[in-house]
Write a structure and sequence with these properties.
Blueprint lengths: L4 E5 L3 H13 L3 E5 L2 H7 L6 E6 L7 H10 L6 E5 L4 H9 L2 E6 L4 H16 L3 H13 L4 H11 L4 H8 L3 H15 L4 H11 L4
Parallel strand pairs: 1-2, 1-3, 3-4, 4-5
Helix pairs in contact: 4-10, 6-10, 7-9, 8-9
Amino acid sequence: MDDFTVHIVDDEEAVRKSLAFMLTMNGLGVRVHESATAFLSLAPNLRQAVLITDMRMPDLSGLELIRRLAALEIAIPSIMITGHGDVPMAVEAMKAGAIDFIEKPFEDTAIVDAIRRASERLSDACTITESAEDVRTRIGTLSERERQVLTAVVAGQPNKAIAFALDISPRTVEVHRANVMAKMQARSLPELVRMSLTAGVAS
């Protein structure tokens, strides 16, 4: 891996320690921070950093942390983790600048893969543009109905609401959702949201 440091910001000591141990065993440099405020004070001086932060923390939420980094024009690729995830929350996190949104419990490989994607932002300025073009190509393979379902899904609407709005059955919505996931090559809803934001579909 490239020479960068993963900064873990989580108010739970057990989470910090277990995640730090796992990432260290995967050959990554790691620093832990017990609060978003503590990390924010150091952020302006950090170089080659990737951030993993919990959505819900008592002093400052992970979402607010990412927003403040953006306001300060501190470019640190960020990954949001949470035990209470939903699609609207994922949209908010990635609109704020998060690279990925991962729900607990998660597989070790999910975090490591997300870190690899985040680290690409440190060295490859073309990654975002190329990714957007790739996503738009995949969107071009969707039918009109599948695009409607995609837009509704990334807006956080449940299947029943989508079915009512499009005047189709919930089962048909499920079929369209499965087709959308397959054609977009998305392994999870947060990943689908990330793709849609990249391509400008989610607003």
